[in-house]
Specification:
Shape: elongated
Largest sheet: none
Order of helices and strands: HHHH
Oligomer: single chain
Length: about 80
């Protein structure tokens, strides 16, 4: 169960980053999603300017720490070296 939550969190984080990088396409088409994209950019720039981490990073780290206490669980996206 925890490994599924880790994988879902990583996928959502990746999709959010893709949306921030390529969301300008919505602005070019005049979509209302542009406001979400601009809000996300302002949020991301604010986090970087203040030196804070994304809340999804904290969630990922929490799940990874939790998984390290339970050895048998395997994640599809996080493989130990």
């Amino acid at each position: 169960m925890v490994s599924l939550l880790v994988d879902i969190t990583i996928i959502v984080h990746f999709l959010w980053i893709l949306f921030l990088v390529f969301g300008f396409v919505f602005a070019l088409k005049g979509s209302r999603i542009t406001y979400v994209h601009l809000g996300g950019l302002v949020f991301a720039l604010g986090l970087n300017a203040l030196g804070w981490y994304c809340p999804l990073t904290h969630v990922e780290n929490h799940f990874v720490r939790f998984m390290s206490r339970i050895p048998p669980i395997q994640s599809l996206l996080l493989q130990e070296a």
